[in-house]
Amino acid sequence: MIVLAVSALVLSGCGGGSTDEPGGQDISSGSKHLNLYAYAVPKIGYDEIIPAFRDTEEGKDIGFAASYGASGDQSRKVARRVPADVVNFSVAPDITRLVKAGVVDKDWAEQYPNGSTPFGSVVALVVREGNPLNIRTWDDLLKPGIQVVTPNPGSSGSAKWNLLAPFSAKSNGGVDEQAGLDYVAELVRDHTRIQPKSGREATTAFEQGQGDVLISYENEAIFLKNQNATAKPGQRVDYVIPPETFKIENPVAVVNFSKEKEAANEFVSYLFTPAAQRIWAEQGFRPVDETVIEETKDLFPGEIAKLWTIKELGAVLGEGTAEENKGKDLKGWPAVDKALFGTSGAITGIYDAGGKV
Asked: Could you tell me the pTM of the whole model?
């Protein structure tokens, strides 16, 4: 009952909803208007990015309304054609859903730099201040009694990234798939007590005292640690970047039924400018512009021995799928989603069975 009560509080307290006054600053005024639908976590970035864009010549007469929530839920809303102009989701399959629904162009990933991905992150482990349980690696999450908070991959894109990191580390990038699945099954079955809908809801649950470790984006870990100075002692955190982790790529696209496509394109283009890239970095998101990456590298401490990518993992998991896919092996997210997270995916099956392989 306690878990249910806390879960209800988490679900009611964050995630979805709209805002046009980040930090009390009105962003809604303008002769043109854009609706941004995004996953929950980058709100702190957009709260700075949108006002900065409105200070530019291109953005001075563009007003915004922004909706944030679990990536999969946001994607399904836009697929039903809620008023939207720009989308930013946690994982590419949530944009693929919109391509299939006819609301995003098939070549969306080629319309902007870096596969239309303006920022990213890596999977991190958030722990209580001082790291009292000495959590350093993925093996440490399976120690007896350790309780882990991570969202449900059925609704949350961040949950997929969170699970791909240990899966890749334990399976050697998908080569030993069963070893990776065994790890995920034990994690879910023996160490995961609550399954929030989004990355932000998982963060809130951890802040409220649930769990010993929060699997999350590095940017979310930075956000939490930056609040230590004003946080209550029990809510202060540290974070660890495991030696093997996963590169997170969060794509953006313009909705093709937008009535303000020119303004939408101006905004998305701005996300890749050096000025915006510096803002992303200052808010804890890893920039993609090479110059800004070098300028801001001190903001992202930690030594990563192996950074797995969706491209690497997809090449392995998609091998041998040509016969059922028009003569071509699946690659990237299509391969990973089909193998692990689709309706018949192995990790989906683990969650459906309560952690049984």
From this structure: 0.86
